[in-house]
TrEMBL record:
Keywords: DNA-binding, Transcription, Transcription regulation. Residues 9-69 form the HTH tetR-type domain. SUPFAM superfamilies: Homeodomain-like, Tetracyclin repressor-like, C-terminal domain. It comes from Streptomyces siamensis. The keyword Transcription regulation applies. This is TetR/AcrR family transcriptional regulator. Transmembrane segments: none annotated. It comes from the Bacteria. Residues 32-51 bind DNA. InterPro entries: Homeodomain-like_sf, HTH_TetR, Tet_transcr_reg_TetR-rel_C_sf.
Length: 196
């Protein structure tokens, strides 16, 4: 790859990272091309060197936002060597995650948009749900029930963060995160001890 091609690829990647944060924080309808390009230090006219349209940018930024979470989830599961599932739950339901939607899990911030989105958007969202389900199920020793437990866990994680961001009362928001985390960890302990 020549210097100018490498530069173009780096610029494109920078715009995509910026756009992926913006759509997680503000939604897919908010970021305008001019604002994004300005924030990236580029001119509006240069946009079409990198993307076919705003829809093309948003679709690619959504895919970046969705896949970015995989490594974060894997790191979270490794935080607690004795109980990887509890480590993942604690990291996902942390107040820091709630308070940073721009860098948080895109399943939370892009769910409604994916539901209204085109087939490609839905497929990207579905692929990430599947990746997370596999990761969570892989933390469970009981292969027979692991996928169902993973579905329940992931749904509770995403739902708790979504609601904790949406309510006005900070104390209630904290309570949502803490209660769901505690119940999910209790459920995991009961399930594990029931199989022992």
């Amino acid at each position: 790859m020549g210097h100018s091609q490498a530069e173009k690829a780096a610029t494109r990647a920078r715009v995509l990272r910026l756009a992926s944060r913006k759509i997680r924080a503000e939604g897919v309808t908010r970021p305008g091309v001019a604002d994004l390009m300005n924030e990236a230090g580029l001119t509006h006219g240069g946009f079409y060197k990198h993307f076919d349209s705003r829809d093309d940018l948003i679709a690619q930024a959504a895919a970046v936002a969705l896949t970015e979470g995989t490594s974060k989830m894997e790191r979270a599961a490794r935080r607690n060597e004795q109980d990887a599932r509890a480590g993942l739950i604690d990291a996902y339901l942390a107040k820091q995650h709630r308070d940073a939607p721009g860098t948080g899990c895109a399943l939370v911030s892009l769910g409604a948009s994916a539901g209204r989105g085109d087939q490609h958007f839905k497929e990207a969202y579905e692929q990430q749900v599947g990746t997370y389900l596999d990761l969570i199920a892989g933390l469970d020793d009981d292969a027979d029930d692991a996928r169902a437990e993973a579905m329940l866990t992931l749904s509770a994680l995403v739902g708790a963060v979504l609601m904790s961001r949406a309510v006005a009362d900070k104390g209630f928001s904290d309570e949502l995160l803490e209660t769901v985390a505690e119940r999910l960890k209790q459920q995991g302990s009961q399930t594990s001890s029931g199989r022992a």
